[in-house]
């Protein structure tokens, strides 16, 4: 089974200039643990995770309306391709203790023109992919 075989929707992603408040609302509203952060060409720049959202709590800093995802996102991010075997993704996630891995594919000549996110699905013990395409 490959990453492409377990992709699901809805499509959820953010740009680097998205406010942290908006990104947190997307995380909680969709019940997901991370969002791919993509540029205008839909290339993966980083990942905004639950841990990134909580970073201000540890420092005692409130999440102000001007705080942007680019200032707290996790980067660099390992990505996998659409044809990557799910077992290889699972091993990488276990070894690196990751909850999410962006999946990229090539389209219109550009690597990463379309991203998806592999995540662990609680209750089923299976991995799924949150699609994030656009552009």
TrEMBL record:
Sorted alphabetically, which InterPro entries does this protein's record hold?
CBS_dom, CBS_dom_sf, Diverse_CBS-Domain
SUPFAM superfamilies attached to this UniProt entry: CBS-domain pair
Q: Does the keyword Lipid biosynthesis apply?
A: no
Question: Locations of Polar residues compositional bias?
Answer: 121-135
Question: Where would I find the CBS domain in this sequence?
Answer: 7-63
Q: Which Gene3D superfamilies match?
A: CBS-domain (3.10.580.10)
Q: One Pfam family from the UniProt entry?
A: CBS
Chain intervals for the UniProt region annotation (Disordered): 108-135
Q: Which domain of life is it from?
A: Bacteria
Sorted alphabetically, the keyword list is:
CBS domain
Q: Which PANTHER family match?
A: CBS DOMAIN-CONTAINING PROTEIN (PTHR43080:SF2), CBS DOMAIN-CONTAINING PROTEIN CBSX3, MITOCHONDRIAL (PTHR43080)
- Any idea what this protein is called? CBS domain-containing protein
Organism (species): Amycolatopsis carbonis
